[in-house]
Design goal:
27% of the residues lie in helices and 9% in strands. By secondary structure, the protein is of the alpha+beta class. The two termini are 29 Å apart.
Length: 90
């Protein structure tokens, strides 16, 4: 997750890039996908708002996971989606 105010998701990053990024930003507590209007509201807020960024396509994930040198792990940081658990397949 990243904060709405961090550089990775700043307004002015270029209209085309911001437009394509908007669809990938989700508020984890509600599952709300952000629109530009909602993003601007959150960005102007004095409260820190966290978003999940879906940066990889499902096709990319499906092509990479089977590779023998890929390992999935969890850093276990509180609040991070990976903290939900990574289990070894038996």
């Amino acid at each position: 997750m990243t904060a709405v105010k961090l550089r990775a998701v700043q307004p002015g990053m270029g209209a085309k890039k911001l437009e394509s990024t908007m669809a990938t930003l989700v508020l984890p507590d509600t599952g709300e996908h952000l629109t530009k209007q909602r993003f601007d509201e959150l960005h102007k807020s004095s409260t820190t708002h966290w978003v999940v960024i879906f940066a990889n396509t499902q096709e990319l994930v499906d092509s990479v996971i089977p590779h023998p040198l890929v390992m999935i792990a969890s850093d276990g940081a509180a609040g991070h989606p990976r903290n939900a658990g990574t289990l070894l397949a038996e």
